Each structure stands twice: as C-alpha cells, then as structure tokens.
From TrEMBL:
Ranges in coiled-coil conformation: none
Stated name of the protein: Rhodanese-like protein
Ranges for domain Rhodanese: 19-107
Lineage: Bacteria, Pseudomonadati, Pseudomonadota, Betaproteobacteria, Nitrosomonadales
Signal sequence, start to end: none
Amino acid sequence: MVGLSGFKEVDSAYVAELAAKGAHLIDVRTEAEVAQGVIDGAIHIPLHLLPLRAADIPQDKPVVIYCRSGARSAQACAFMASKGYGNMHNLAGGIIAWARAGQAIRPAG
C-alpha cells in the first residue's frame, strides 16, 4: 500500500519476490555496515550520497531501498518519491528483518 509519503512499506517475503522478478535493490547503509553483509544484487549508495546519485537509480522496474532497521531507507524512499520517482519500496525492518526472516545475506565485496 502506498502511504502519504509516496512509497510502499514492504516485508522481507515481498522484497524477495520483487528481487526474483528483477527489482533494483538499493542499500543506503554506511561502508562499515555494508562490510557486515548485503542482500545479493544490491547496489550500495550511502544515504548521504543519494541526492547526488538519484539519477543513477533506474526507473524501469520496482526499486527497493533498505538500511539496517528501515528508518534511513524510509527517508530515502520519501526523498526519491519527492523527486518524482514512482514504484519505490522500503524494506520494513531493514536488513535485520530480512535476516530474521531467514533470507540470505552474502559477504560484501
């Protein structure tokens, strides 16, 4: 469901479905956080660089943004929606919820 903020809050199972269908995954965590592991196929764009790299995010498929707990990625989704980007999804609970749901995390690099 799209909230007033212009993006959807989605759970790990839905993100896994979107990823399997080719959605773009954007990780907005810090370098140190990314070093602890990532969701396979994610593109790392630290939150502070998002305004500079927003144009790098393709709009041809759904976009899922995630962070550690879902707060920064919600900010990122709201920012992208304010710039006219549609089809934005926030991974509710972040990579913590992803891991707790038993989804795979791969080593960074």
